[in-house]
Amino acid sequence: DRQKHIRNFSIVAHIDHGKSTLADRILELTHTVAERKMKAQILDDMPLERERGITIKMNSVEVHYDGKDGQHYIFHLIDTPGHVDFSYEVSRALAAADGALLVVDASQGVQAQTLANVYLALDNNLEILPVINKVDLPSADPAGTKAEIEDDIGIDTSDAAEVSAKTGLGVADLLEKIVRVIPAPTGDLTAPLQALIFDSKYDPYRGVVLSIRLKEGQVHLGDRIRLMNSNMDYEVTELGVFSPDARPFDELIAGDVGYLTASIKDIHSARSGDTVTSAEHPAEKPLRGYRPMTPMVYAGIYPTDNAKYNDLKDALDKLSLNDASLAYEPETSTALGFGFRVGFLGLLHMDVVQERLEREFDLEIVITAPTVTYHVVKTDGSQESIANPSEIPDASSIKEIQEPFVDATIMVPEEYVGAVMELSQAKRGIFQTMDYLDKSRVNVKYKMPLSEIIFDFFDKLKSSTKGYASLDYTVAGYVASELKKIDILLNGDKVDALSFISHKDFAENRARVVTGKLKEVIPRQNFEIPIQAAIGSKIIARTNIKAYRKDVTAKIHTGDPDRRAKLLDKQRAGKARMKSVGRVEIPQEAFMAILKNG
Ligand code: GTP
Q1: Does the first or last residue of the chain, that is N or C, have fewer Cβ atoms within 10 Å of its Cβ?
Q2: Is the CB of 588 under 6 A from ligand 1?
Q3: Atom of ligand 1 nearest to the CA of 164
């Protein structure tokens, strides 16, 4: 009977369309959080999420709702991130739900990620309930937005809710619609336990905390459970739901979304996508797990202090539990020592991983410039996949270098089509098609090198279309390109971690920009440092950093001890993310200089 009163749904949307704000209103209306504890975007509890105003992690929460029919309902709501770099979170969240609220900003209409999220929801056979948000805005066009949802996506909007997540208007009606439209979970309570792990995190006291969706059977405190893929048995020490704080229960049944702990200390045995079953009466087969993610970009991560290598390894292991899209393996660099080559879904993801390693694990790291994976076909016919530019072999042994291309879809109002095309051509894009979605909106498709899309395409696209364009892309395959490896020499020594790949037409220009940027960011030392860029043995750009006395306080004659102390502090803090390479100290920004396109 309890099962009939459960509704499991995820909230999905294009970035900034208001998912987290809607979740706030639902939590408030259902009195899930005491009024004095309520704050905006309450489910975004990671400090990084609050500072940046974006959702990075999914969050599941149980809320209780008294329906107009006099029945008591239990909602499991899963808020998800909107940015493409975190789409793996969305796909895992959807596998735990039976329905999805598709939030669409009524002043913006359907955007590229609205569509991408709908496809993910349909892949998971979810019932989709459209929610037209921000109807309080003067520029809101709810009727037009509904028409777009019907025409562009093909979803019936007769049940659609019109709300303002900001003012709360329409949210009470939405709760009733959730009861009516989102199906109750099914699942046999007497069948052997099958629960999907859709997320996890490491807790130093309780071990791994698993987020689970029970598909079949039940689980009780003290039960012997088995993780089917890793084939490990444990005893359940805690069960419960997040509401939004952990609330322990004695049992969970098919249809529930909750958490489970079992003193699991072995991080590698408790991965998202695995199935929890009973050790005594195991299910025959595990549930369908998740397709592992293929990283889009790779970068090297090194501890600034070489002695911290093992701490970094431990941190990556723990972080990867909570960030299932993180991939890493050890690598060594002549310049930087022992570290890891880490795969990311995009630059925002890379940024977040760097910050989380530094904040949650108290590490000081340097991260090298991100790169895509290249396929190198050698003259002897062999082929290698390389995610580190310094590993590209000598040009004489290379037949061709292939780079990943994507199919990019850009949705844009008609007046900006010219700007989009100009930018796409400049980024080596190959025009495919252009379709009118309606009178004024156009869908433009290009084949484009992934490396160009990832680095600054999106920012340039936004600025050249006043923020009106939205972008989505999928990897299409590898294509041979005229690519060159450019090495950087500091003080005559090649610094492997600064090597990069460029299209031959842009090589000299980029070499000049990069050496210029390095000159700006590498602090002067008490000897002159030549900076050179080379293709093979041919130098294509050069500059010098002049010698300089390094003590910044030497120049200060005020004798103000406070000021002097502050400057020394600043100098020390600036050093934190420096890495000594030979006699030269290289700051973190130097590695990112390579991203500068001029
Ligand atoms: P991500 O999780 O980062 O993808 O964003 P989100 O979809 O969760 O959006 P969020 O809830 O953070 O809202 C984005 C912005 O829109 C915030 O500045 C909100 O205050 C604003 N916003 C959300 N709902 C409404 C609404 O109904 N009306 C108005 N006027 N603003 C809204």
Answers
A1: N
A2: no
A3: 27
CA of 83, closest atom in ligand 1? 4
Pocket test for ligand 1, best of 10, 12, 16 (most atoms within 8 A of CB): 16
How many angstroms does the Cα of residue 38 sit away from the middle of ligand 1?
A: 16
Give 33's strand partners: none
Q: Is 41 helix (H, G, I), strand (E, B) or coil?
A: coil
Q: How far is residue 179's CA from residue 5's CA, in Å, rounded to a whole number?
A: 8
**Is 17 marked as binding a ligand?**
yes
> For residue 524, how far is its CA from the centre of ligand 1 (angstroms)?
45
Question: Could you give the CA distance from residue 531 to residue 514 in angstroms, rounded to a whole number?
Answer: 10
Say if residues 105 and 17 touch (Cβ distance below 8 Å): yes
The ipTM assigned to this model is 0.97
Q: What is the pLDDT of residues 274-331, one digit of tens each?
A: 999 999 999 999 998 887 778 889 999 999 888 999 999 999 999 988 888 899 999 9
pLDDT tens column, 398-417 = 999 999 999 999 989 899 99
Spatial distance between the Cα atoms of 378 and 391, rounded to a whole number of angstroms:
13
User: Across-strand partners of 329?
Assistant: 341
pTM of the model: 0.83
Residue 130 main-chain phi, psi, to 5 deg: -70, 135
80, with CB counted inside 10 A (0-12, 13-18, 19+), is buried
Cis peptide before 248 (omega within 30 of 0): no
Helix (H, G, I), strand (E, B) or coil at 90: helix
165 Cα to the center of ligand 1, angstroms: 8
Residue 507's Cβ-count burial label (10 Å; 0-12, 13-18, 19+) is buried
Q: What is the 3-state secondary structure (H, E, C) of 322-362?
A: HCCCCEEEEEEECCCEEEEEEEECCHHHHHHHHHHHHHHCC
Alpha helices in 95-241 (DSSP H): 112-123, 142-148, 171-181
Q: Within a 10 A sphere around the Cβ of 310, how many other Cβ atoms? A: 10
Distances (CA, A) of 575 to 305, 475, 530, 572: 12, 39, 21, 5
